[in-house]
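user: Please supply your own:

assistant:
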Amino acid sequence: MKAIRIYALLALMMTLAFPSCAIIEVNGLGNDYKDLTESQKALVRPLERFEDAQPGLVYKLTMPMLKEELEKQPKAIVRVFNPACRGNACKPLSSFQQYAQENGYVLYQVMISYAGLGDAVAQSAEFPLFVIDNDYYRTSLQPLYVRYFTNELVGLPRKTKERDVPEELVGQFYFFEEGRLMKVTDEL
């Protein structure tokens, strides 16, 4: 969170120092939907029913929809991830899907933004993807809507501050049994 404030402050300072260069683009502060091509935007759909979700598409997801779905599943994992992840630490989406299937889980892979959507969709030919519906949280600020979403996912009040979230509730993999949170981890 401090890094975002620093970047925003630097962007403001640059704008004031160089007014003729006032066009500054900072990725990662919003949901990055505006950066999608028209063909990528066509892949994003509102989620009506999980049963109708198609592989290779991205569905806007709200917490009430997800909570209701998790209650129907004996065992489920919700993975909240950044689709723009680059480097050796970023594993193929199919590896998480394979783990879930081999261990009897239903997996919901939830993106925090639309950045990297093309790469994510290219990897999701066998399963649908989901993205946090920031409109539901009435903010376009990614740090806020992601925090609200994950807070609600673990059963905390929506606006709980990051510093007040217990360490055992922080991670990217949220394991559920019949809608009850069992554990949160950063690795499978």
